[in-house]
Amino acid sequence: MTLGDNARRSASVLRPVSGSQPALLTLKGVSKAYSTGVVALKNVDLTIHQGEFISLLGPSGCGKSTVLRLIAGLGELTQGSIAWQDGRNPLAQKTDIGFVFQEPTLMPWATVFKNVYLPLKLRGLSKSEARDRVNQAIEQVGLAGFGDSYPRELSGGMKMRVSIARALVAQPKILLMDEPFAALDEITRFRLNDDLLRLWAEQQWTVVFVTHSVYESVYLSNRIVVMSARPGRVHADMVVDAPYPRNEEYRTSVVYNDYCRTASTYLEQAMTS
């Protein structure tokens, strides 16, 4: 079966984004060029709706991480706009954003509690005022009892849980995740995928998740945005219309495999476009 045949066979599982939820933010004609002359993004149009779990999928260097950084206000647009839809000043939105990087970026000299407490400390909350929220966040990521531990005493998966708790404690509306599980073994990655979906359902976040993995994107997402090779553009925007909660039964289902084939088709096309 050729890629074209596969795409046609899988067309029945694709549909336009319904837009049933209100838009949270819109990227319109977003381009990013660096002083070195590298054009990372070109004319990216993307609307993110409240409550979505979106994966950005694409080859290395296609600008996936750049999209996250621009949304978070960690860089300047070369062209285009990023508009939040509730009418507030874009600078005020930064307090509504949680960012989980590929590496946990923990302070090695600080305990788990102090690492998770950091965002609230920066907002001016005292330790006593923040204690309940910090402990709750630590418990929600499955690390109850580890508040006094140091990063050197934790496994890679546990360190990433601390990083997620640090984002969680700020009670964000949108969580940006830049390949957070890429360096972990498969078993740990599967467990964290499941825990992330549980937290997403509980917290009612909007999540934008960068990954190179077709399988991870199809497992986690209700929408996958496939980006082309540099300069990054939106090559395909597909909906994963499979119910939550998801588990091992979904991973081994025909529906999951169909979505994986479709996403793989788009990814291969994007790498040569």
Give a short overview.
With 273 residues, this protein is α/β, with parallel strands linked by helices. Helix content is 37%, strand content 22%.
3D structure, described in words:
The chain has helices at 3-9, 64-71, 112-122, 127-140, 156-168, 186-203, 214-220, 248-251, 254-272, and strands at residues 23-33, 39-49, 53-57, 79-84, 97-100, 174-178, 206-211, 223-227, 234-239. It is of the alpha/beta class. It has a single domain (3-7, 22-272), classed as Rossmann fold (3-Layer(aba) Sandwich). It has a six-stranded mixed β-sheet with strand order 5-6-7-3-8-9, sandwiched between helices. A three-stranded antiparallel β-sheet has the order 2-1-4, with helices on one face. Strand 6, helix 6 and strand 7 form a beta-alpha-beta unit. Helix 3 (112-122) runs parallel beside helix 5. The model is unreliable at 1-18 (pLDDT under 50).
How does the SSE layout of this entry go?
Blueprint: H1 3-9, E1 23-33, E2 39-49, E3 53-57, H2 64-71, E4 79-84, E5 97-100, H3 112-122, H4 127-140, H5 156-168, E6 174-178, H6 186-203, E7 206-211, H7 214-220, E8 223-227, E9 234-239, H8 248-251, H9 254-272
Parallel strand pairs: 3-7, 3-8, 5-6, 6-7
Antiparallel strand pairs: 1-2, 1-4, 8-9
